[in-house]
Design brief:
- There is one protein chain.
- The strands form two sheets. A seven-stranded mixed beta sheet has the order 2-1-3-4-5-6-7, with helices on both faces. Strands 10-9-8-11-12-13 form a six-stranded parallel beta sheet, with helices on both faces.
- The longest helix is centred in the middle third of the chain and has 29 residues.
- 45% of the residues lie in helices and 12% in strands.
- It has 447 residues and is α/β, with parallel strands linked by helices.
- The N and C termini lie far apart (60 Å).
- The chain binds uridine-5'-diphosphate-glucuronic acid (UGA).
- The site of uridine-5'-diphosphate-glucuronic acid has 20 residues, from helix 9.
- Uridine-5'-diphosphate-glucuronic acid binds next to helix 9.
């Protein structure tokens, strides 16, 4: 291994990137300001739910490949390459909040002052165009007394990791995007990736820094738009007798210019990335004097989509006051306990406004939900107990275990078998025959 690597910011992206590298025997110095995080990582216990994380963390800890520290100065001194993976949350107006990026850049700059040899800095955090050079680069120059391109290199290298498959995505990316300040910076990072993915033919895109920064936003905004698009088509299908959105998605997805992925109609997208990045891009674009109406429509459709489940519940059972509504699924997608921007949140808020009684079940996200809703809602310990005596059920997240439920389970447990399939997991033919069944994209006509 030619290079020593440090990674500043041990959130989701930082830790998953670190462990993908240690899985191929790179020695990594994880850096974080939070003593708890450093302590947890040092002990080898995973700070969040993610497939393969625990195993890789234990292995790396045992092999001594991870050397976690809070000391940025030492981390910079002991490495040649530093990835910056701190969070870039939203301000209340939707614009990007750069506090963590600025603070990391200051620390790195101060540490770099003592460094004699060339050091490459790579921004992996999602940042709006201009940030890597004008904010990170400038702060580092100011605090280090050194010059970009001469004493240190600078790249922007967006990440495309999905929660639930982050390690796999880091090991087998579709492509690698390198935004470079100069050729030396780009070559140094490209060489690292060529070594890391030595027998894989992965396309590498070399470009300038603002283009790389925009690729990340354009990517997430496009995927969000694809979802809002199919949800729009689903809403049209609901008004056409016997039109099936799943078949429409299949039909258009086979056009290679479209492709079938991210065409699942449902209650909309959530998570820590799509909603935040879309808002940041809209806000950034407006500051440039252009209101991106197409992106605003993507957001608007997503907002309306979640609460359409509550409208469907009202169509089925009338006034919701005092009615017991069972919610299956709380996390923003299956296989995670993450509820950031989860569609369950606006649905629950709307149901509370309507004075409904809510009982929710999720295989892993109940502790997260308790932090948000406390005792405003009730929590069940299984899908079947959640359904018990309910007037209506809304399936919010498509966990595998919910796919195993049969029409009989709903009929047996519920007071009235009213089911809204918010993620299109159930067969409408089978369910419509036995239950009062509504689904996203399914009109009132029985199939
Ligand atoms: C997303 C991107 O997929 C990653 O490439 C990116 O790196 C990441 O954001 C990020 O910026 O860090 P993630 O938020 O983990 O990853 O989740 P996705 O699997 O993309 O799903 C996002 C939301 O879209 C979920 O709520 C999911 O239920 C919803 N979705 C997805 C749909 O409603 N329909 C679909 O067809 C697909």
């Amino acid at each position: 291994m030619t290079k020593n690597i440090s990674i500043v910011g041990m959130g989701y992206v930082g830790l998953c990137t670190a462990l993908a590298l240690t899985s191929k025997n790179y020695s990594i110095i994880p850096v974080d300001k939070d003593p708890n995080k450093i302590d947890i990582i040092t002990k080898g216990s995973p700070p969040f739910h993610e497939p393969d994380l625990e195993e890789l963390l234990l292995k790396a800890t045992k092999n001594g490949l991870l050397k976690p520290t809070m000391d940025t100065k030492k981390a910079i001194a002991d490495s040649d390459i530093t990835f910056i993976t701190v969070g870039t949350p939203s301000n209340p107006d939707g614009s990007i909040n750069l506090k963590q990026i600025e603070s990391a850049a200051r620390e790195i700059g101060k540490a770099l002052r003592f460094k004699e040899t060339y050091h490459l800095l790579i921004v992996k955090s999602t940042v709006v165009p201009g940030t890597t050079q004008n904010v990170v680069g400038s702060i580092i120059e100011k605090n280090s007394g050194k010059t970009i391109g001469k004493n240190f290199g600078l790249c922007m290298n967006p990440e495309f990791l999905r929660e639930g498959s982050a390690i796999k995505d880091a090991l087998y990316p579709d492509r690698i995007v390198i935004g470079e300040y100069d050729k030396k910076s780009g070559d140094t990072l490209q060489n690292l990736y060529l070594e890391f993915h030595h027998n894989q033919a992965i396309p590498i895109i070399r470009t300038n820094i603002p283009t790389a920064e925009l690729i990340k936003y354009a990517n997430n905004a496009f995927l969000a738009t694809k979802i809002s698009y199919i949800n729009t088509i689903a809403n049209i299908c609901e008004r056409i007798p016997n039109a099936y959105v799943k078949t429409v998605a299949h039909g258009i997805g086979l056009d290679q210019r479209i492709n079938p992925r991210f065409l699942n109609a449902g209650l909309g997208y959530g998570g820590s990335c799509f909603p935040k990045d879309l808002q940041a891009l809209i806000s950034f674009s407006k500051k440039l004097g252009y209101a991106p109406s197409q992106l605003e429509a993507t957001h608007q459709v997503n907002e309306e989509q979640a609460t359409s489940a509550v409208e469907k519940a009202k169509e089925l059972i009338g006034n919701l006051k005092g009615k017991k509504i069972a919610l299956l699924g709380l996390s923003f997608k299956p296989d995670t306990d993450d509820m950031r921007e989860a569609r369950a949140i606006p649905i629950i808020n709307q149901l509370l406004t309507e004075d409904a009684k809510i009982v929710a079940y999720d295989p892993v996200a109940i502790p997260t939900a308790k932090k948000i809703f406390g005792d405003k809602i009730k929590y069940a310990n299984s899908a079947k107990t959640c359904l018990k005596d309910a007037d209506c059920c809304i399936l919010v997240t498509e966990w595998n275990e919910f796919k195993q439920l049969t029409p009989h389970d709903f009929k047996q447990q519920m007071k009235e078998p009213n089911l809204i399939d918010g993620r299109r997991v159930y067969n409408p033919q089978e369910y419509s025959q036995q239950l009062n069944f509504r689904a996203i994209g399914l009109g009132p006509n029985k199939p």
